[in-house]
Structure formats: structure tokens, C-alpha cells
Amino acid sequence: MTVSPTSPMSRTTVSSASVSGTSVSGASVSGASVSGTSVSGTSPRVPSARSAPASVLPGGGAGEDRSGRPRLTELRLSAFAAHRSAGFPLGPLTLFAGPSGHGKTSALRAYEALARLGGGAALDEVFTDPVACVPDRARPDAQRRRGFRIGCTADGPEGPVRLDVAVQAEPELRIVGERLTAGGLVLLETALRDPSRRAVQAAWHTAGAAPVTRAPLPDDRLGTALLPLRVAGKTDGQRRVLAAAEQMVVALRSVFACDPRPGRMRTPVPTGSGRLLGGCDNLADVLWRTRAECGRRHSQLVAAVRAGCAGPVADVLAEPLADGTVRALLDRGDGSRTALGRLGDGELRYLALALVLLTGPGVLEVDPVGEVPAAMQTLTVLADNLDRGLDVRQRGELLRLAARMCERGHIRLVGAVSDASWAAGADGVTVVHLDA
Questions:
Q1: DSSP state of 361
Q2: In a 3-state reduction of DSSP, which class is residue 403?
Q3: What pLDDT, on a 0 to 100 scale, did the predictor assign at position 39?
Q4: Is the peptide bond before 361 cis (omega within 30 degrees of 0)?
Q5: Which are the contacts of 409, defined by CB distance < 8 A and separation ≥ 6?
Q6: Residue 26 pLDDT greater than 70, yes or no
Q7: What are 293-317's pLDDT values in tens digits?
Q8: Contact indicator for 24, 149 with CB cutoff of 8 Å
Q9: pTM of the predicted model, to two decimals?
């Protein structure tokens, strides 16, 4: 849920049990025990003491993206880690706020997991420790099965499209149910019918001579991401399935999970691909590339660094060293230069995050959708510990930069912060409070 800038509400409460519509509950990772074999029904609205209540502080209002680009508008954690029956709104710029242990990082990890599954990654690559995703104190069923449920809503040209996935974590990691819906119509439904086979039975909307088409799909991949390879698109129903699946996949893809680590940004690095890693370890190598590629964006970076770092800043640059490595520097404008290694942790994190917001998929280590024009894609930055080490000025400058970039529609930011009071009243910000 996003509150518009014209809303008279200063604080809108969103219950953690507010996951509306259909969820994957018949496959039933209900309460986290995997006991059923079909995907149907509505999840029980049972609030969790760990994730309730959640609330949204609109700030100045989270502007809606009217460009038509596919984007996620809701994240559902029906049964995941510390969350039960939780639904969270996602705007162009969303901050998850709350004390440690209340599920901020879990929410970002669930988002990243859905993104990777949407990109075709295998389940064991995405969930290296699946048991950690099972809700707290969840009990196994009679067959000793436990699991978790996650989902999301993607808006775009096809309208809201919902995806819900049930994953069995024990005794074997596998997808046991998946449902893709749009406009109240089930477009794809999968269920684990035979536990002895490494496949789920899938049925997708056809609306031709037969209302649905049935076929097995692997139980370690997201069926939605496989539909373009399995659906011919010969009937109106099939074309609707393909359009909804494409919208979901495009909305999920191009995610960059980022948590800059100053300790690894201080030393010279070898030149490489020039694509920024999630920890921003190779910041110097990326600056070596971007300074020459786009003068306008580099000028914006210099202006941002000047606003958030101590002392004068005339330029941000990188220089090669005799041993083949490259180091980053601040040009102070008076003939002196300061190596980035001498900056404080907060300054380094601020600089790295500013660079992330001012670049794109070609510079960041992400996997964009190659078959979709860049103008129709949106890069989503997942920034854990967004406010760690930043002072008041740096937080304010970074928030203004993020709001400006997100307003254009090409980039979205979902961050986790311990306290979002500094974002109150800011235009274009959705704050989701995870309160005790």
C-alpha cells in the first residue's frame, strides 16, 4: 500500500496479516509444515508477534511509476523466517525500518530470492541455507516436512499479477506449489503430486479446445520463468499467460543487492570487468571506467560526493599504479589528492551508494533481461544497512539523490534502516515500520 502525496493521512497502519487474495496454502506450507499437494485457498490471517504490526509512513508520498515498466508493488512473506502472514507495499523508494531482529534483512533476502528464481536460478543456488528461512518455532508434519512461503505482486501493462510460491526446506529442498494469477484468473498452478518424482504437476490457462494444458515441470525451478519455453502462444489464453509471466519476470530481474564494505574499498584493486560488486570492493576499478564513459553522470557523482564528504572535492578519480592495480582518489582542487583509503567508513559507504544510484545495469553486477529494451526495464537496488555509518548530512543527501533517481522510473530502491525518522516528510518515500 502506498499513500499518495495528497492523502491527509500522516501515518497509515498496514497489519502484518494483511496479505489479501489467494496464496499458496493448499500446498500447505501452513505454519511452515508442508502437508498438502495442491495450490489453492486463502492463507489464514494470523498475525505474528515478530512481524506485527507493520505500518507505512508516507513521508511526502511515494510517487507512482506511470511509465508502464513492470515493477514489484507488494512483497508477501506468508511464512518466512520471522514473518507470518505479512504483506508489505513497495514504492519507487521503500525503507524497511525497525529494531534488530524484526525481519528487515529477511524481507530483502526474500526479495532477492524471488528475483534470482525469476532469472532462472536453481533452488539450491538461491537458498543455500533453506532451513534458516523456515518460520520460527515451526513444527514438522507427520512426514517431517517443513518449509516456507513467499510471493509478490508485479504491476505493469497487464495490470497486477500475483506470484505465490511454497518451498519445502526439509527433508528435501523443492518447490511444492506455485500459483500465478491476474484479474482473478489462475494462469499457472503447480503442485507436488508424487513426492518420489523430482517434478511438480503444472496446469496453465489455455482457453482453447482444452481450458488448461497439463505437463510436469522441474521442482527446483520457478515455473513462471519456464513458461516462455513451454507455452506456444497460439490462443488468446496462452498469450495472456505469456504476457503475465513476462511481466513478472521482467519486474523481478535486474536486482542489485548492495551493502558496501569500507574495509575492502581502501586498498588498490586489479583492473577487471569494471562492473561493481555488491560489497563495492572494486570501487576503484569501476571509477576508472565510469569517469571516462559518461561525463554527465560523473559530474553528478562529484556533486553528490562534494555534498556528503568532508573538505573540498573537485573530482573523484582513479589512477593506475605500477603493479597493475588501480586506486581511487579525491581531487581536492588545490593540487592535493586524498586516497579513498584515508576516508572514514561513513564517507566510503556514502560514496559507494551514490555511485550505485547514479549508474545502471551495464556498470553494476546484475543480470538484465536481454530480450527486453532497456527503456522498459527497471533496476532495483536492495540496500541492507542503508544508514549504517552515515551521519545526518549524508543520510539527507543520499535520500534526496535516491528520491530524484527513483522518480525517473529507471531505478527503484528498497533499503533496510534501523530508524527512519530522518526520512519523515521526504517526498517519494514509503517507510514500512516493522514494530515489536
A1: T
A2: helix
A3: 37
A4: no
A5: 65, 67, 69, 92, 378
A6: no
A7: 888 899 999 999 999 999 999 999 9
A8: yes
A9: 0.86
